[in-house]
Amino acid sequence: MKKSLDKMLGGFLVFLMTIIVLAVLWQVFSRYVMQSPSSVTEELARYLLIWIGILGAAYAAGQQAHLSINLLEEKLNPQNRKRLKIAINLLIIFFCITVLIIGGGNLVYVSYDLGQRSAALELPLYVVYMVLPLSGLLIIIYKVNEILNPQKYLV
């Protein structure tokens, strides 16, 4: 399951990166060559950067490539090291539930309820904010997978 999720999320991030590069290239071309800057591409690049950053953090959490300080871990025996990693994963899950899923879900609901739209794209802002609960759910899936399969991840 993890490999298919990695492949799907990685492919989606590559797709978003391709779109943001094309949008920024068009913005530069339209501004300096055509002397008429596109108003849509700046906003599109901003929202894509948000999605890439937050989904990229979820992908990094799944690859265990996130920033960590492992001073304590090195001093523990293997059994306590596993317990520490499980405790850290449980704290990450708690953070994802409270901040990303509940808090992000409330943000999505409020922006949906108010009918907020972006200025240039006329995109409903709840679509932009949907990345918060989505990435929280992805991180939880990765971390539960690490806890349930400690032989693969927690050694």
UniProtKB/TrEMBL annotation:
The keyword Cell membrane applies. Keywords: Cell inner membrane, Cell membrane, Membrane, Transmembrane, Transmembrane helix, Transport. Residues 20-149 form the Tripartite ATP-independent periplasmic transporters DctQ component domain. It is found in: Cell inner membrane. InterPro entries: DctQ, TRAP_DctQ. Coiled coil: none annotated. It is a multi-pass membrane protein. The keyword Calcium does not apply. The chain crosses the membrane at residues 12-29, 49-72, 84-103, 123-142. Belongs to the TRAP transporter small permease family. This is TRAP transporter small permease. It comes from Autumnicola edwardsiae.
